[in-house]
Amino acid sequence: MQKRRFFLPVLVVLAGLFRPIAAISSETQKETANSGDARFVGTAVCADCHQEAYANWKDSHHDLAMQVADGNTVLGDFDNAEFTHYGVTSTFYKKGDRFMVRTDGPDGSPQDYRIDYTFGVYPLQQYLIRFPGGRVQALGVAWDSRPRQEGGQRWFHLYPDEEIAYTDELHWTGPNQNWNYMCAECHSTDLQKRYDPATRTYDTTWAEINIGCEACHGPGSRHVGWAEQPERKGAPGLALSLDERRDVRWEIDPETGRPRRSVPRETQREIEMCGRCHARRQVITDQYRHGARFADSHVPALLDERLYHADGQVLEEVYVYGSFLQSRMFAEGVTCSDCHEPHSLALRVPGDGVCLQCHAAGTYQSSGHHHHEEGSAGASCIECHMPATTYMVVDPRHDHSLRIPQPELSVELGTPNACTRCHRVQTDEWAVRQMQKWYGRQPSGYQDFARALAAARKGLPEAGQLLAELAADPDQPGIARATALSGLGAYLNAGSINVLVDGLYDDDPMLREAAARSLEGLDPALRMKLAGQLLNDPVRAVRIQVARMLAATPPGAMNEEQGKQLDRAIGEYVAAQLANSDRPGSYLNLGVLYAGMGRFDEAEKAYRTALEVQPDFTQAIVNHADLYRQQGRDEEGERLLREGLEIAPQDADLSHALGLLLVRARRLEDALPYLGRAALRAPENTHYGYVYAVALHTSGQSEEAILRLEELLEQHPHDQRIRQALAAFRREAADP
């Protein structure tokens, strides 16, 4: 599990994008709600007929994704091996035939635990431990399963440079290492989390412990019934037929010299099926249906600055899908199985050979193309166009955006490029000169959105226009256009609203969902007029985003039928949150929803529940206190914020919220220390710094206020609000 310092994406972004046992069971014949009368039958049944596919799948990463811990599956050294990380020593040993570890528990004290499951196999293997209440947790110490000559065959910590104390949410006993929520859906077949919010326990089940045939193809009983017919009449009964490559050839276009698909790809079934797990995404229903659109059960992350560089290159681990959607290969119709054998998961041809299936070797393996010595890293398609970033210490992942290196963007925006990642002693400027020398120009490639996204991230004056142009450009990747649409909410004007309206009715549900997200700042009646039809969108992610955005629509702004549609969609939104009711962010989202609808009692209950799930969830504390403000209950809000600061004394949001409350209470002198702490602890938040400067000025400390604004402007030179306040304060100081 990859480190995450921020909460997984929730569907509501606060103002301002991926645990003895109660029950884990194997039920190979169970019926599920999303499959009608179809049942999961198990991989062994499939193997009877599909022997070649089974042989390829056997011992693949899917086959070995999760296993019961025993002498055949455990790879780590359990011969009383010790590993120490920031003063915490973990001892791995055996007790009879059981694999054990002695390490720090949820209270920080050493405890002995049985290893119940292995998780993954190469280049590392993690270990899972069962806790009371059906919770399963992943150890932070993992086994490096690479050969010894590659640095493997050792224990290591997944966060080697950080002390992860037992109070940290990233501690192996904490919420961000919980298998039931974080990992299980993608490592087992037909995973049913089955979390009970009343008891806060799990009764998690699977059809198969690993990723079997039916994880991708869906429950197989109907297919088995069809196969058992003597004449095999009718449809084969598969829940999901992955036949997008059937009778498809890749040919060289004589006009462009580039490969083209003999038959256009008409669906995204295969890519979205893979994306269910190979994507950063948020689950919005526990009723996954094989063959339904990805966005009917998940909300994929966009090109968020916490996850991607401005040009779309990977920053955090994003599991391929969001990168691949940026690529020209995706745009031209390539599917995952064009490059990867779908059962073994291996490349169809090793190394660059997989590229040369479609790209002519005479053109692309020549020094005239790559300008490097044959056999060197620089002559490799993959090294130049799919550079790898290592996650979890030992696991390199290739960037699937398949881009042309653009060192000029590195100079301009600070994004990485493959040239200087390899030539570490050289500069980005050197790489620009080399590209110009070789090609006479800097090839732009397919992706041309970095400047727009960078401008928005920096708050540049031209950001709104650039985002609107990107969102309206059909030649750019859909995920980049959706990212632009999601940012246009900060730049609402006649032009951007027209772009958003076009996005609302785009064929791509990712664009429709993002456009709906950005209408928040409009009048509720106008929002209903523009987006009301999407309450019946065929895709759940769009419906619930529209429902959230329209939830506060006054009854007079919609007709009776629209009211019914809105109620149904709000019900779906609530269900989407409750699907993740083991996470405090879900209750936060519900609180925001109910507060916006004026349902204050329900909002308060939601915030209280969020804090019961996670007492130090400061976002819920801030929102809860703001709910009290709306009700004229600031005394209770003050008490709540002060209690929060006792739990999280360094939290900037709590300090700022308490400072504002004290300002409202006309206790400016009391407010200043809290506003100052917020500005100091969150220097990237210009609003906090601005409010502190205004408060200083109001209290008569004009020189200090000017100094603070000057420092802020130096850090954020394009912030017009800071610039205007500074000019006003200077004029006042010059002419009191």
Give the key terms.
6-stranded antiparallel sheet, single chain, 4-stranded antiparallel sheet, 40% helix, 33 helices, 20 strands, 736 residues
Description:
This protein is 40% helix and 10% strand. It is α+β, with helices and mostly antiparallel strands. Among the domains are: 25-206, no CATH class; 250-403, no CATH class. The strands form seven sheets. Strands 2, 7, 8, 9, 10 and 11 form a six-stranded antiparallel sheet that branches. A hairpin with a 6-residue loop joins strand 15 (250-252) and strand 16. The termini are far apart. Mean pLDDT is 92; it is low at 1-35.
- Determine the mean pLDDT: 92
Distance between the termini: 59 Å
What is the radius of gyration? 28 Å
Helix content: 40-55%
How would you describe the shape? Answer: globular
In DSSP terms, counting alpha (H) and pi (I) runs of 4 or more, how many helices? Answer: 33
Please indicate the percent range of residues in DSSP E strands (runs of 2 or more): 5-15%
Number of strands: 20
Structural class of the helices, strands and pairings? Answer: alpha+beta
Largest sheet: 6 strands, antiparallel
The parts where pLDDT drops under 50 for at least 5 residues are 1-35
